[in-house]
Amino acid sequence: MAVRKPPITTREYWAPGHAACAGCGCAIIMRLATKAFSEAMEEKYGDPNAFAIAHATGCMEVVSAVFPYTAWKAPWIHVAFENAAAVASGIEAAWKKLGYKGKILAFGGDGGTADIGLQALSGMLERRHNVVYIMYDNEAYMNTGIQRSSSTPYGAWTTTSPPGKYSIGEDKPKKWVALIAAAHMVPYVATASIADPYDLYRKVKKAAKVDGPAFLQIHGPCVPGWRIPPEKTVEVAKLAIETGVWPLFEIENGDIRNIKFQRFPKDGKFKKPIEEYLKLQGRFKHLFKRPGAIQELKEQIKEMWRVLGKEVELP
Amino acid sequence: MPMKRVMKGNEAAAWAAKLAKPKVIAAFPITPSTLVPEKISEFVANGELDAEFIKVESEHSAISACVGASAAGVRAFTATASQGLALMHEILFIAAGMRLPIVMAIGNRALSAPINIWNDWQDMISERDTGWIQFYAENNQEALDLILIAFKVAEDERVLLPAMTGFDAFILTHTVEPVEIPDQELVDEFLGEYKPKHAYLDPKRPITQGTLGFPAHYMEARYKVWEAMENAREVIKEAFEEFEKKFGRKYQMVEEYKTDDAEIIMITMGSLAGTLKEFIDKKREEGVKVGAAKITVYRPFPIEEIRALAKKAKVLAILEKDVSFGLGGAVFADVSRSLINEKEKPIVLDFIIGLGGRDVTFEQLEEALSISEKAMKEGVEEDVYWIGLRKEIL
Amino acid sequence: MAESPFKVDIERAEKELTEKMTPGAIAYIPGSSVINKTGSWRVFKPEFNKDKCVRCFLCYTYCPEPAIYLDEENYPVFDYDYCKGCGICANECPTNAITMVREVK
């Protein structure tokens, strides 16, 4: 039997020995995104190492760069929580002047991107820096101990959205930064998920290869934050796609009338009920005891799809 | 040959930046500094300055982009004032802690509230603990020179700390004065190219900047900043000497004026030193034994120079455009720290003056002087005074 | 036997890594986290049955550490120095070639 070749590069930029929790979904994003980036740089510039990383404060930053150790094998910098996009802008400008060929990769969590870093992100996108910004979305401030962010989905328990007599948990719909990014009419915006690593890989590569800014919002489940067993990280992400909770799409040049969808059911009918996604996670446990709560979540998901131009049916 | 031109303080700062040839500039408009990025964008647009000018969406991103650029290994520059500097506050600590020699020009302006666009030093004074070297310019020539010197000192391997040079809002930023523009060749010689050995982002040598410091390492990292700031004292003096040799203008940590037989020495910073020297001339004519001292380098604080000064006088009267509420002026605290363990020390009095653009008049200086004379003869009643307050509207 | 792709990093870190404070607390040795053998975190250990493996690469792709690399024939090799025992590989393996068994230490 012939030796099968792996569909992703065997180069690694994310070394083991980091302190991410066992089964961390966002650690998978770090590893795959840097691999994909390097493949894109090799194809575009003939140098797989032609990139640097600017990282916002957050889980993946603190677990990977504890002095004197680092898990990174690419040039990497962390400055603060809210400014990864601005720092990346500065590096990109410097690289231009130094005559380096390559691209800058920025990472921020949902807190560092959807909330405190939104302004810096908007500035970077608007100024058309040659930067790929990846929002690793675990849907709450996990690094500080699971507080809600604007990217926390409706109904979720967090330490600042606890369900109680007067609360169903998080009571606002999830904010989709990918759509805000698309409004900047940048060359490439996409969502991705660790559920489909090869789709993720392809999208990061595409983002890395476009000239100008690109933005990716990537779903990365969090074991303690979502209250899931560590081995279920990928499984739960898959259910998010199969139940319609997490859309996979690409928007080029802000053209929201021509969104390309991936793994979208042709008839718009999702086969699995979102209950299957919810019941795997402790953060949604209370919803099953709240009449109407899951229905409300379904309505919000349908609305989200409507904004994306799709009428969907959720079982 | 150096050329002389009549220009505003902001233009002098922009010229300094142009001469220093930073590769990246990131700036955001703010009164009274706006003309600095305007002028620099002209230089870039005309091809007179080969730099990337990032028109950021906030001062926070301005300093963040400078951190990114400096960490990538190039010379970086920005300019701001007041609220803009306050918005940068968080990143100022980080720039110093990451040992990135960014240089920044500040049009010293009051902080809100109430909002006020005029001069005092509260903006820069409030950043005194960030690990940035601080220079205060007396006039537009000093603004230009002290920005060049800031680059020289900041990038020295014994230092590697960011530096800011302040010049007073409107009094300097918007006032034209003749300024000598040094020869580019000499500036090139003076500064050299910035080629960092410690911090750059090169795929050929991947390093990790901005690590997490656990309690086992954090203190040592901060001590290194302390050590670098201490080293800066010597490096600044060397830079001043070299600058004088090359460009003929002399700078000192503390510049003294008619202090040799003075009983009272009035200490200040920035453009107020100009007014003060005129005042001293007047008092000297009247036979009053009073002198002046100007603090040019505020961080590192010139402790030894203040001690030497203190030996000459019976009263040190500090005139400062800033306040640390619940304590007094910041310079007062710094001078006091310098003298606290001296065997013999003069009376130290603090005069908070000229906040938010209030004109500092000879009458006000007269008042500060007479309080100082009274304290010298009769002892200290109070040690912090607000001078020039309109008591009738309080 | 195939080598860990981090062999070079491990050797370099073991030789050169010190706690000596650098300017800006910069970490100069790339991938030096390999010094931390996170395999000690593990409670369950993945056991691999090569006969069942179809080389789909999913375990390799998903490993968040990474503690799975590929041998000369592109079969997965489990690096127990770093495997935290999360069990994603076993959960996602389409042919049940990986089973999680309680660690005996």
Task: Sum up the structure in keywords.
heterotrimer, B: 394 residues, alpha/beta, Rossmann fold, seven-stranded mixed sheet, six-stranded mixed sheet, globular, C: 105 residues, alpha+beta, Alpha-Beta Plaits, 2 domains, two-stranded antiparallel ribbon, 3 helices, 4 strands
Q: Would you kindly provide a written description of the structure presented here, covering whatever features stand out?
A:
The complex is a heterotrimer of chains A (315), B (394) and C (105). Chain A is an alpha/beta fold and 315 residues long. Chain A is built from 11 helices and 10 strands. Chain A has one domain (25-307): 3-Layer(aba) Sandwich (Rossmann fold). Helix content of chain A is 35%, strand content 15%. Chain A has an 8-stranded mixed β-sheet with strand order 2-1-3-4-8-7-9-10, sandwiched between helices. A two-stranded antiparallel ribbon of chain A has the order 5-6. The longest helix of chain A has 21 residues, at 25-45. Chain B is of the alpha/beta class and 394 residues long. Chain B folds into 2 domains: 3-247, Thiamin diphosphate (ThDP)-binding fold, Pyr/PP domains (Rossmann fold, 3-Layer(aba) Sandwich); 254-393, Rossmann fold (3-Layer(aba) Sandwich). Chain C has helices spanning 7-16, 58-62, 88-92; strands at 44-48, 68-70, 76-78, 98-102. Chains A and C meet through helix 1 and helix 9 of A and helix 2 and helix 3 of C. Strand 2 of chain A pairs parallel with strand 9 of chain B, so a sheet runs across the interface.
Number of domains of chain C: 2
CATH topology of the largest domain in chain C: Alpha-Beta Plaits
Structural Rg of chain C: 16 Å
- What is the tally of helical segments of chain C? 3
CATH class of the largest domain in chain B: Alpha Beta
- Derived from helix and strand composition plus strand pairing, the structural class of chain C reads alpha+beta
Number of helices of chain B: 12
Give the CATH H-level superfamily of the largest domain in chain B: Thiamin diphosphate (ThDP)-binding fold, Pyr/PP domains
In quaternary terms, these chains amount to: heterotrimer
Largest sheet of chain B: 7 strands, mixed
Mean pLDDT of chain B: 98
Question: Based on CA inertia axes, which overall geometry of chain C fits?
Answer: elongated
Q: Secondary-structure element sequence of chain B?
A: EHEHEHEHEHEHEEHEHEEHEEHEHEHE
Count of discrete domains of chain B: 2
What's the number of extended β-strand segments of chain C? Answer: 4
Average the pLDDT over all residues of chain C and give the rounded result.
Answer: 96
